[in-house]
Amino acid sequence: MTYVNHFTKFCVLRRLTTKKAEEVAKNLLDTFLTFVAPAILQSDNGREFVNAVIAELSTLWPQLKLVTERLRHPQSQGAVERLNGVIQDKLVIWMQENKTKRWSVGLKFV
Q: What residues does the Integrase catalytic domain cover (predicted)?
């Protein structure tokens, strides 16, 4: 999971074992509690998935308020896609340098 604060450009990477809303919500909650919860949560996933994640977040943190509308901001989406490419390249290099296939460990270093 790639979480990017569009204001600061700070990026948080999390290893997910599934793409289930429950797991995504728990990882987002950890990120929100470590930093700060955003007012707007933008996702490139489908509406049903986003709604399920928001519903799960609401059960974990009832006071959390998020805008649930899907925003159309191509510049932000393009920036995230470029960032994902950079992350992938850095992970490959880290794995080669450390002679490992454990990419999930590399997330912490990348």
A: 1-110
Residue 41 near residue 66 (C-beta atoms within 8 A): yes
Q: Which of 92, 104, 87 has the alpha carbon at shortest distance from 11?
A: 87
- Widest distance between CA atoms in the chain: 45
**pTM beyond cutoff 0.90:** no
3-state helix/strand/coil string of 2-41: EEECCCCCCEEECCCCCCCHHHHHHHHHHHHHHCCCCCEC
Q: What is the pLDDT of residues 28-37, one digit of tens each?
A: 999 999 988 8
How far is the C-alpha of 70 from the C-alpha of 5, rounded, in Å? 16
